[in-house]
Amino acid sequence: MFGVIVFLVVSCLIHAVEGDPEGGLTSRRHDFPGSVVDTCNSLKEEAQEIRREGYSAVQKADQIRDQAYRVKEEAFELKEEAYEIKVSALEARSALEVTLVETLALMKSQATVTGLYIQEIRSSLSSLSARLESLEQEVGDKFGAMDTTLAAQSNVMEEKLAAQRTAIEENLGALNSKVADQNAVLEKLEEQVVSGTAEVVAKVSKTQTTVSIIKYRQQNWMSEIRLISLYKMTEENNRHRQGFDSDLVTDGEFLHSSTTDVNMRTYSSTGSAAQNNKLWIKLGGIFRIHKIKIWNVRHCCRERLVGSHIFADDKLIGTVIESLYTYDYTIADNDPIYASSITLHQPLAIHLHILEMQVWGSGPFGTDDKFA
Q1: What is the pTM of this model?
Q2: pLDDT tens digits, 32-62
Q3: Smallest Cα–Cα separation from 27: which of 35, 16, 18, 36?
Q4: Could you tell me if 229 and 281 are in contact, meaning their C-beta atoms sit under 8 angstroms apart?
Q5: DSSP class of residue 305?
Q6: How far apart are CA 370 and CA 372, in angstroms?
Q7: Which helix (H) or strand (E) holds 122?
Q8: Residue-level pLDDT at 33
């Protein structure tokens, strides 16, 4: 109840300060923030509600008074008790009076504080309004300075553009003159190109004819089947210490394998009867292999060659399965083989010796121009 009375007093003070006869805050609402106005209106509504509740309380008090009259007779009977109650009532009344005095004093002080707060709000609003006016003036001055600067820069840019336009026009004139000169030179070059094209075409045609002839001759020469192993480099993995070198298999001597002089033997032999004795012929290029012929030794031990394998690079050509004087391994025309080396491999633990190994083929070829 004390808080309600305070709110009512504050609301009345605000109405008194504003001087609004209707009790509202709409006459100078523009001087306060929206939250203050709404609060005051809310307080007004609460005061009216409390007023209605007061009327209701008065009616109830009348009813109670009627009831008091009815119990008056009973009160006389309880006179002694009533006197005691009267004393208590007087004491309560005194206490109530003291409370009301204190409440009024408090309300007065609160009204004073509220007035000071309202004055402080007005002072703040005035300061804010002055600051806004100062800012508006400052913004106006800056816009004016910017307009002046932009106008000056625009004039400078126009002068520069005019100067650049003049320079560009002069450069265009010079460029047009150079273009005309270059066009004349191009016309002369076109005439020279046209006259020289016919000569070039004739030379190209003649060159193509010559190339075709050379290519035809080269293909015919490369397709010739000939002995391609004669005097080619060889190698072996188990060299003989007494001079039976692997080069003897490509020296062209294959009629006699032995003479009366032991130091004039014409066959190649490994140094020992070890496993995996090997002998290579390096052809010096990629050739198409048509035939491989092996000449076995004649004087003895022809059976030592049995079990040997003949390879063209990594492809198996054949295997020796019997003791003969010569062995011919022919490659089928429908299954051409290209290789750069021929290998004779004896996997058994036995001497590897032959009189001659001849390779017949055509070529050489590049890795990207093999043809059958």
Answers
A1: 0.44
A2: 456 677 887 888 888 888 888 888 888 888 8
A3: 18
A4: yes
A5: G
A6: 7
A7: helix 79-222
A8: 56
